[in-house]
Amino acid sequence: MESIEGGFTPLPSASALRFNGRFPTERFRNMKPEDSALLRHAVNKVNEEIRKGFLSKQDRGETGKALLMAMDEAIGLSNELAPGDHKWFLTETTRRHRVRRKMMAKIRRTHLRRWGRGFILFDDALAASEVLNAAIEDTIGRWTLENEPSIKKEYLLGVKEILGGQARKCLLLLSLHSRACSIANEIRLLVEHGFPEAVKARTRSLHELAVIALALNVHGQADTSVSDRYGAWTLAEARKEARAIAARGGTPEPLDELEADLERRAAATWGGDFFRQNGWAAPLFPGRRPPIPFNEIEQRVNMEHMRDYYMAGNDAIHAGPSALMNRLRLRNGSVFPTVSEVQHETVRNFAAVAVMTLSDLGATACRAVASITQDFDLLCGIKVIRDFEDLAVSEFRNDGMRA
User: In whole angstroms, what is the distance from residue 281 CA to residue 112 CA?
Assistant: First the structure.
């Protein structure tokens, strides 16, 4: 199995699993199958079924199934069958509360000693982004009130009561940026408390939002050819969900009248390919028919330089064997970590990337909304978020407060 460094991560030997002269779980070190009260209960139950003629010991398949069912029953009665073992688990659970609190507090202190200043600068970047989001929202609100009659005529594909055009684009960008702010807040907490996989996974989500925001503006900040399709692509998501429900034997909820009308018009206007993978992005690739992989949209908006971070986020999300074995630590009495951990490399790289991505997305949304609403003083917010971005990224890239 390849490790992060490109070598191999072999399974540890039995001797490697010893810590301070003992196995991590001392309670079960010398357990023998014949000593198990649970197994004894299950075997006795199966033997009773055989004696009664309900099972044949020659039919190993059915006997095996019966044994598994009997073991499930034994597990449910384990507090009675093995009261000592049951009590041990309860006692250790109580003790573990104290251990994990100490461990997690120590990890947080370690991160704060090295990255405390960086976290404060991260907070500054977050606060500036939230202020920018509120300013964008206010700008859209004022513009909407001032232009309500004309905005109301911009129905999506002509379906009344479903907003389209520039107003919809503004709201999509506002939503993308607000969600990015929320995710960046998650990353800020996760990185301080030592959850590297979660940090990578959420940074991946932040990257996706940034790519989409850029894609909506490929043909110009006031252009709505992509944003209208993206706004209507909820229909494709609904189709996919309906297929999944039907495949499980369920009955999908029917579209309401407006949604059904929008779906008919989308198919008539953009064709059936619109409902395929990332069909909303077709205007980015003239002459190209969906499906369109996300990495090609990424390249189209010049974000392929972030691909390594995106793939690291993929590993953190999915249950691939490489990702599993790369968690091998052999420290603190455990083979693999079950709580938080110190990973300075993740803090250094992904905290910086999160701040940069949030800032990029904010600038993208701000420019488009300012162009559509003609409120160009809104662009002052870009300098503020960029200044805070520079300070935070520099702190993380320069290794924090490492002595």
Answer: 42
Cα(373)–Cα(140) distance, integer angstroms? 7
- Whether the predicted pLDDT of 397 surpasses 80: yes
d(C-alpha 38, C-alpha 28), whole Å:
14
- 400 sits in the region (left: phi over 0; alpha: psi -120 to 50; else beta) called left
Q: Among candidates 312, 324, 231, 213, which has minimal Cα distance to 270?
A: 231
* Cβ neighbours for 62, distance < 8 A, ≥ 6 positions apart: 55, 56
Taking residues 202-212, what's their average pLDDT?
97
- What type of residue sits at position 133? N
Q: Please report the pLDDT score of residue 26 as a whole number.
A: 56
Token code pair at residue 294 = 């996300």
Which two three-digit tokens encode residue 34? 């014949």
Q: Tell me the CA distances in angstroms from 246 to 15, 98, 241, 250, 255, one per residue in order.
A: 51, 47, 9, 5, 15
Q: How many helices (H) and strands (E) does the chain have?
A: 16, 0
Q: Nearest 5 degrees, angle CA 374-CA 376-CA 377?
A: 135
How far apart CA 388 and CA 100 sit, in angstroms, is 35
DSSP string covering 154-211: -BGGG-TTSB-HHHHHHHHHHHHHHHHHHHHHHHHHHHHHT-HHHHHHHHHHHHHHHH
User: Which residue is listed with tokens 């688990």?
Assistant: 89
Q: 291: which residues sit within 8 A by CB, 6+ positions away?
A: 276, 277, 278, 279
Q: Give residue-wise pLDDT tens across range 283-313.
A: 999 999 999 999 999 999 999 999 999 999 9
Residue 252, both tokens: 């999908």
Contact 367, 361 (CB under 8 A): no
| Number of residues that make up the chain | 403
Nearest alpha-carbon partner for 366 in 149, 122, 178: 178
- Which residues lie across from 2 on neighbouring strands? 8
As given in the structure block, the two tokens for residue 287 are 């002459």
